[in-house]
Fold these 2 entries.
Entry 1:
Amino acid sequence: MNHKALTKTHLKLLTDIFPGQSMTVQPAEMLIYGTDAGKRFSMPQAVVRPERTEQVQELMRMAQQERIPVVTRARGTNVVSACVPHQGGIVLSCLQMNKILSINSDDFTAHVQPGVVTHDLQQEVLKKGLLYPPDPASKKFCTIGGNIATNAGGMSAVKYGVTKDYVLGLEAVLPGGEIIKTGGRLHKNVVGYDLTKLLTGSEGSLGVIVKACLKLLPVPEASASILVCFENEAHALQGVMAVFRAGILPCAMEFMPKEVMQCLSEYGPVPWPEKAAACLIIRLDGSAACLEQEITKLRSALQDVLYFDMAMGEDEEHIWEIRRLINPASFKLGPDKVSDDVVVPRGEILRAIKGIRTIGKKFGLKILAFGHIGDGNIHVNFMHDKSIEGEQQKVSSAREEVLRLVLSLEGSISGEHGVGLSKKAYLSWQLRDKELQIMRDIKKVFDPYNILNPGTGV
Ligand SMILES: Cc1cc2nc3c(=O)[nH]c(=O)nc-3n(C[C@H](O)[C@H](O)[C@H](O)COP(=O)(O)OP(=O)(O)OC[C@H]3O[C@@H](n4cnc5c(N)ncnc54)[C@H](O)[C@@H]3O)c2cc1C
């Protein structure tokens, strides 16, 4: 349901808080703020671009008093329509709050505003020999605030964890305008409930993050990437288990089944022999001496290998280029794509991949399932052509079967992308009434009048 029109008084208040270019109600300018990578659209009633925390506070004070929805957004790269203002209201863009405030090499911390682009922060800390590990594939164009609000993960999650593992403290403005400060420069802190973790992954529904203190690590001395191909999936999966059992914790471990390899080979030249039907891309890092030992261990742990290629340092990129080509190559199978990012326990991956293949056959759909095998996170891409009658319905039925399959394997319907509007209908498939009720009660404590990102997430 759309929020009623903003009054002249509202607009006057907004222009007082956001002078000049920091606010707009021009439809042409607001168009882009009505959508995100989830592709739904709804026109905002106003867009504001604060530069200071006080502006966010004043906005939230007014919005709560007047019961106007506020939808916080950054780069809009989330794929679940988590920042589409589908009930109207004001879109708050955090992109003008984009400063790296400090990098502290003694604490191994960085203080940042939410609109800093993730890759920019990584490059800045690298200059001081420090590492900010979370690495969503979108890192060159998404922000720290968006990453915190979605608890973004990436390929290196298997060793380094996800965004929540690097958020030490937050400052957030609540509906009503009050600021809360959680955590701080501390690497350990067990006083009270962990509000930092609660805000992390809350998809903008509890408060507007205006500052974050992030944990940094030392940069590892050396790294190596390995492409290893097998004759069948069972061998590849045995390889995964063998690597972990050998005591190796890779910083990335990606899996590609035969459908993906075939799609890549139709797209361009590939290095593996024709017989190869599954492959792993593994990245190791650490001290040069440890790395050498781990490579030796890994070589002896992997059995039934058809093809092996290894690169170190800057040369590693040619191996990862193969992984990056999956997205463009996938469109050879169909002009349209619906993607899910399900997770299963690592021991259930083979069952999940086979089950997804069976569902694809049942619906006559081309489904590419591949991904972060090290942490059980599988990207499921339903390739189709929506101009063909009935195709979209087939995708949505197949998608529901995949989600049910994953839940039957004790998995989760999302490992990275979150709930937003896209997965809301399936929440009760995974969470029981009591858990959902607790989450909704928490939302009421933070946002009693449901003005922040209303209707998305839980
Ligand atoms: C090509 C591509 C690759 C991707 N790869 C990955 C991946 O590997 N891993 C992964 O996890 N995701 C991935 N994503 C999804 C997306 O990039 C992440 O969800 C990212 O964290 C969103 O960041 P953003 O700056 O674009 O935030 P937005 O999309 O603008 O916002 C995302 C959510 O955060 C909230 N939000 C934003 N800023 C704030 C703030 N300051 N305070 C409170 N709430 C806020 C919004 O309300 C919304 O709910 C990918 C997306 C694309 C398009």
Note: DSSP finds 16 helices and 18 strands in the chain.
Entry 2:
Amino acid sequence: MVAITEDEIRSLASFKGEDAPVTSCYLDVDGSRHVRHQDVVHSVELVLKDAASRKGSHPSVTADLQRILDLVKGGIDRSTTRSLAVFSCSAHDFWRVIELPVAVRNQVVVNHTPSVRQLEVIVDEYERFGLLLADRQRARMLVYELGELIESDQIVDALPRGDDDDHSYRRDRVDQHASALVHQHLRHAADTAFRLYRDRGFDRLIIGAPDDIATELEGLLHPYLQERLEGRCPIPVNATDDEIRTAALEVEATVERRREADAVARLREAVGAGRRGVAGLDATLQALVERRVEQLLVSSGYATPGWRCGGCGWISRVGRSCRVCGSSMDAVDDVVEEAVEEALAQACEVEICVGNADLDVLGCIGALLRY
Ligand SMILES: [Zn+2]
């Protein structure tokens, strides 16, 4: 499984099909829905046929669709892959296949650039994160990406000895000795967490430990990890892999919703104060083409048709004549998708917000501005 990163999405979004359109194809190949190989091939054939009938017959696009069908017919390792994102522009010999362990909605888009919005939603939703579980003796460090465990390690250190073992020790000596051992164990756990961070890298760290241990452990973390600390969760170190994964994904979703809510709160404040923030489609598109956007916020699922100028790149809800250069604009199925791609190509941050009523009230889209 090749990991997909924000950088790769940006690089995809910046590809332009100068001589021919780009075909972007998201395919559900989930083994639980399509049990046999021929079921997947049949389902994909239908999706591609429908696209061929709707998207015209540019020879490059026809070649793209055939190549995608051949890819699926050739077989996919569906033990780990639940969906595919394929980007092709045969005229430019451009071809990129991304296997994903999470679900996508079947979709074929033919446009001047790769359609990366579904990928962006996935990467935004499933950031790579670390989970460090510990008690007084054991610790487990796990790294998840796109909801899947990609790396883990565990350590077991000597248990603090009870005073039953040696009656010659005084109680306070035993306690001191025990807490020194726990401290050593937690340092060991913190070092393990840092090693996995160096090997794999992750954006967020969540800790699962009893409160007194969690506090001590947090103090022992490398400063890089302290910066990435997102909070605590109540997962015990001896939970099963499935219990850990389920609980970890819940924590991750909660953290993501909180980050979205913080971003929307900043947007509301900026819009309210009338400085460095715009809301609603028209104002946001304008800020974007003026390259003033620092962070683009979009409600998940928000889509609406619009226009794009092939001459200067202006995007707008209304067409057909470009306000900037006067060229005739092209109608696009989803101008929000255009906005996301433009933002990624400009290296803006993009936050796709799930179920955020405050952003919906602001018009489902808005932007924090550089100036
Ligand atoms: Zn123009």
Note: The chain has three domains: 6-124, 129-239, 259-369.
